[in-house]
Design goal:
- The protein is α+β, with helices and mostly antiparallel strands.
- Among the domains are: about 5-45 and about 110-140 and about 415-480, no CATH class; about 145-235, PDZ domain (Pdz3 Domain, Roll), CATH 2.30.42; about 245-335, PDZ domain (Pdz3 Domain, Roll).
- It has helices at about 5-40, 95-100, 100-105, 115-140, 160-165, 185-190, 250-255, 275-285, 325-335, 355-380, 390-405, 410-425, 435-445, 455-480; strands spanning about 45-60, 70-80, 145-150, 150-155, 170-175, 180, 200-205, 205-215, 215-220, 225-230, 235, 245, 260-265, 270, 290-300, 305-315, 335, 345-350.
- A hairpin with a 5-residue loop joins β1 (about 45-60) and β2 (about 70-80).
- The chain starts with 6 loop residues before the first helix and ends with a helix.
Length: about 475
């Protein structure tokens, strides 16, 4: 993926990133607070404020029920303030409640039965999960979902897969008895294995083989070149147009191509599989063609790899009719070798039926939840990589990259992922978050009476410092990675 190299290019990316961030965070926060709002209205709770963002309102209106709908100047969250609340964290305003009439108390959140308060508290996270299900199901049904072949197109040096005996061209057909139909199945099963030994069945030269491999944390790059760590075995899918080797003195070498480059277009034609490259070079019959390719560059100062789009003019050799086969043609014409020259088109776009799309969406959400909980468990046990935590800056950066390079549909998909993350985060039993309220309600149900005011206030203060501290730490992570 090509990244900008000029100040204007970076300014554009950051500006678009801000718009993408505002879109995703506003949508996710609005739906979260709407879940609280609708549950509260259903149980007759009076809602004083519905705010997207914090701080002074920059816009707003008051509806016929007296609720003030507003947008705060700091777009990093939101809140619903009920009648009788002392603040945005739904702590009771005892001075106000003690002086209230019976009619006013009927609309007080704090005077509702325990189960109703619990439903109102959980309404926000539930709304986030429902939003993700609706978005993903719609996208899978309307636009389809890309499916990558389960054929192995890349092997990382020294990684578990290479040590276990995997070779390029192996096609994974099952892992621990679970059938594998696409590359994403490999990713999900391996990631959720928690490092346990796996028996992977592969198809090689028409024969089935069982290989035992133990996943471990492996450094890799996301589609934007950002360095990340994840549980894996060190395999990658087939990449069309990947250059495995360049013959010295060949037309490709003269054009500046190198091992590891990925050719995206030749003579204006996209390279969807290696055969496309071979056919286009042969058809050129010795005439110069423009090659658009991608090369990875390492920025040691930022400790980050970036893939940049480059262009070159390549003058291939004329290829005789006696030369057949994609590899033979590409090598004779340009001196280019591919890891898997005869691999089929690695990716297809498949539209799903309504029920299948729904099932796929729920499965993907489950994967996000389990992976997130696993990552948090690793952090708590000291085995995780804290540098993978991202805050608002990281979200803004990814939002901008997604919007610039993939468009609004992919940004909506990102909003679904972010919605799951925020819904899950709010269920953690930390005072100040929804999960903290549920924790207090659970204690009250067991004890038969609520915790004392001082205990609750202390809990909220601890929760506040935990949440703010986590956000500051994640933001510091973003800044160190960015600069």
């Amino acid at each position: 993926m090509a990244l900008p190299e000029t100040f204007a290019g970076w300014a554009y990316l950051i500006g678009v990133g801000g718009l993408g961030f505002l879109f995703t965070i506003t949508l996710v926060v609005f739906v979260h607070e709407l879940g609280h709002f609708l549950a509260a209205r259903y149980f007759g709770v009076k809602v004083e404020s519905f705010s997207i963002g914090f701080g002074r309102a920059i816009a707003g209106f008051r509806d016929r029920y007296g609720t003030h709908w507003k947008i705060g100047w700091l777009p990093l969250g939101g809140y619903v303030k009920f009648w009788g609340d002392d603040g945005v964290s739904s702590t009771p305003d005892h001075e106000k409640l003690d002086k209230a009439s019976q009619a006013e108390l009927s609309g007080s959140f704090h005077h509702k039965p325990l189960y109703q308060k619990a439903i109102i508290a959980v309404g926000g996270p539930v709304a986030n999960f429902l939003l993700a299900i609706v978005i993903l199901t719609t996208l899978y049904f309307v636009y389809g979902i890309p499916k990558l072949s389960a054929q192995i197109g890349r092997l990382a040096e020294g990684a578990p897969a290479q040590a276990a005996g995997f070779v390029l061209g192996d096609t994974v057909i099952a892992i621990d008895g679970q059938p594998v139909r696409e590359f994403q199945d490999i990713v999900e099963i391996v990631t959720l294995s928690h490092g346990s030994k796996l028996t992977i069945r592969v198809l090689r030269n028409g024969k089935e083989l069982d290989l035992e491999v133990t996943p471990r944390a492996i450094g890799k790059k996301d589609i934007f070149g950002n360095d990340i760590k994840d549980t894996g075995i060190g395999v990658g899918p087939v990449v069309p147009g990947e250059v495995a080797a360049v013959t010295a003195g060949s037309p490709a070498a003269a054009a500046g191509l190198q091992r590891g480059d990925i050719i995206g277009r030749v003579a204006g034609k996209p390279v969807m599989k290696f055969g496309d490259l071979a056919e286009t070079l042969k058809a050129a019959n010795g005439s110069p063609v423009e090659v658009v390719y991608y090369r990875e560059f390492r920025d040691e100062k930022r400790k980050k790899s970036e893939s940049r789009e480059l262009k070159a003019t390549l003058t291939p050799n004329a290829v005789g009719e006696g030369i057949v086969g994609n590899q033979a043609i590409a090598e004779a014409a340009a001196g280019i070798r591919s890891p898997l020259p005869d691999a089929p088109k690695p990716e297809i776009l498949v539209t799903l039926g309504p029920l299948e799309a729904l099932n796929r969406a729920v499965g993907f959400i489950r994967f996000i939840v389990v992976k997130t909980l696993d990552f948090i468990g690793q952090l708590l046990t000291g085995t995780g990589d804290y540098q993978q935590l991202s805050g608002p800056i990281g979200i803004a950066q990814v939002s901008g990259q997604v919007l610039v390079y993939f468009g609004i549909v992919s940004l909506i998909n990102l909003a679904a992922v972010l919605s799951v993350s925020i819904g899950l985060l709010n269920l953690f039993p930390i005072p100040m978050l929804d999960g903290g309220h549920l924790l207090y309600y659970g204690i009250e149900a067991v004890r038969g009476r609520p915790l004392g005011e001082r205990a609750q206030e202390l809990g909220f203060r601890i929760g506040f410092f935990l949440v703010v501290g986590l956000m500051l730490f994640a933001t510091w992570n973003d800044l160190t990675k960015f600069f």
